[in-house]
Design goal:
It contains five helices and seven strands, in the order E-H-E-H-E-E-H-H-E-E-H-E. By secondary structure, the chain is α+β, with helices and mostly antiparallel strands. Helix 3 crosses helix 4. The protein is globular.
Amino acid sequence: MTPEGFILAYHGCDAFVGESILAGKGHVRPSLNKHDWLGSGAYFWESSPTRALQWAQFLKEHPKISPGAVKEPFIIGAIIRPGRCLDLTEAHCLGLVNEAYELFRVATVQSGGFLPVNEPGHSADQDLVKRFLDCAVIEFLHTLQADGGRPPFDTVRGAFFEGGELFPGARISARTHIQWCVRDPLKSIVGYFRVTAAALE
């Protein structure tokens, strides 16, 4: 739950935003969407500047998803101190999330509510990229940590399998990636760096 050392990760954004961050004028802004699959926080792609750039290009080509967010696709690198990490590739952390789901489910039913549902983000989406349920459960786990007087998680890490089969019959997904959600950039991001063209080769 506490990876050693630092993590190099990448964020896709607009060039104006990226240059401002590199100039020391701020941090990557946390996302607060109710469908963010790792919960609220600043999102980064682990070890994949190319994937981060593809995301920025996607936002430019689909302005309805995030109006005006990207006019000129750009990427920045970040040095992340994981701190106390909720790592969704690790058995203990997955157990915590599953326990949180059961408590969340019971609380929701008892209050007469309905569980959120993961939904497609567009007509061709088979990956249910709007993760309303996943987000709600992870945020509920954060609340349980706080209410129980336990140390908070600084970061969340997860593997995202999307894009369908890489080739016919494959169980390898075409756009598999690992993402980080940094809950407090001021605490967990040690620094930012400019990504060179060589990193994209």
